[in-house]
Amino acid sequence: MGAVKKEALHRRREPVRDECLHDFRHTAVTGAISQGEDIMLIAAFAGHVKTSTTVEVYSRRLPKQAHDAGRRMRSVRPSEPSAAPS
For residues 39 and 55, what is the distance between their CA atoms, to the nearest angstrom? Predict the structure, then answer.
C-alpha cells in the first residue's frame, strides 16, 4: 500500500457537528411529509409526542404543499344537508 493511501486510512476524521445531524433530521421529516407519509408515523420517528407539534414545526417548510392543499380544499363543496328522519 502506498504512503498516501496509508496516511488517508490513518487520518483522523472530524466529528459530525450536532447541528448537521439536526439538519438531516429536518430533511428526513420534510421529505417524508412531502411524500405523503402518515403524519403519526412521522411524528413518532421525529420523537414528537403530539402530531400537532410535527405539523406546526414542518408546515412552514412546505409552502407549495400547503398552497396545493388549500386549493384542493376550496374546490370541495359541502353537500346538501340530508333531511332529518321523521
Answer: 8
